[in-house]
Amino acid sequence: MADQKNLVAENVAGDFFVDRTCINCDTCRQLAPTVFADQGQFSYVCNQPQSAEQEIEAMHALLSCPVGSIGNRSKIKPDVLGDFPLKITENVYYCGFNSAESYGGNSFFITHPDGNWLVDSPKFLPHLVKQFTALGGIKYIFLTHRDDVADAHKYAQEFAAQRLIHRDELSSQPQSEIIIDDQETVEFASDFKIIVTPGHTRGHMVLLYKDSVLFTGDHLSYDPDEDRLYAHERHCWYSWEEQTQSMKKLIQYKFEWVLAGHGNRGHLPGEKMKTKLLELIERMPSLG
Predict the structure, then answer these.
(1) Mind listing the pLDDT tens digit for each residue in 206-216?
(2) Residue 114, domain extent
(3) How many structural domains does the chain have?
């Protein structure tokens, strides 16, 4: 629970606040960008909500904060627990309840007639178990890489789900049921392509759904301030050169959504997304 005696100094006065346990993971700034901003070491409340919509977004951020650094002094709070998982598009959802074990990484849920998918893992919570059950359970858990597995093993046990992970990441979930050895794209089940993208880590993978939604883990994200695609060169744990080559793999695929584990999501028309991707690839050698 956030502590009013340990506040980030930059918070503006009002109901919402951030304390100094914040790990600056960016979760709150993604969910409520008009309310929270980056101080450098912490997030802070830059504007108190001015509308019901902004207040709901701020409460979404409060619930999703991986370390409970966000507080609300108001005695009357909007009840937003039932909003999670949050629908993004059609049958794709953001789970919320980001885990500190994955440094606040985002996770996603896909409903599908052949079995539902969890992409990376949120905290293991009764509310999410109940919601996932109501949506038909979980058949597969796709793990992009070792950093964002969080409570995947608990969800796998709860739903008898099969975890998919690359062999080079297996030490993070050694009991995973499906191990990917390929370096080429794997057509896995109807509507899903697994694309191996080493770079951020040795066995990093991304998941393409219906040639529309790309779940990118820590490989790729969208920068809304600059309106461009972005790769985390400061947080490349294995090889920036290989990550650059992996990025080039994505040129051959069509997608309109980038749903990142760390970093903002982006939605652009397919051709514009491809242009942004080519621009990023051109920038990457100088960034490294």
Answers:
(1) 999 999 999 99
(2) 84-287
(3) 2
Decide if pLDDT at 288 tops 80.
no
Q: What sign for the dihedral angle of Cα 171, 172, 174, 177?
A: negative
Query: Which structure tokens are listed for 78?
Result: 């909007």
The dihedral sign for the CA sequence 125, 131, 133, 139: negative
Is 139 in contact with 153 (CB distance < 8 Å)?
Answer: no
Residue with tokens 């793990």: 143
**What's the token pair of residue 39?**
């101080």
Residue 166, C-beta contacts closer than 8 angstroms, at least 6 positions apart: 145, 179, 180, 181, 196, 203, 204, 205
241 located within any domain: yes
How many other C-beta atoms lie within 10 A of the C-beta of residue 167? 13
Q: What backbone torsions phi and psi does residue 260 show, to the nearest 5 degrees? A: -95, 150
Task: State the pLDDT at residue 204.
Answer: 98
What CA–CA distance (Å, rounded) separates 14 from 48? 6
Asked whether 91 and 83 are in contact (CB, 8 A), the reply is no
The span from the CA of 272 to the CA of 277, in Å, is 9
Contact 151, 125 (CB under 8 A): no
pLDDT at position 244: 97
The helix/strand/coil state of 263 is coil
SS (H, E, C) 157-187: HHHCCEEEEEHHHHHHCCCCCEEECCCCCEE
For the chain, strand residue ranges (E) read: 16-18, 36-38, 43-45, 70-72, 86-89, 92-94, 108-110, 117-119, 140-142, 162-166, 178-180, 186-187, 192-196, 205-209, 213-217, 221-223, 228-230, 257-260, 266-267
State the CATH number of the domain containing residue 208. 3.60.15.10
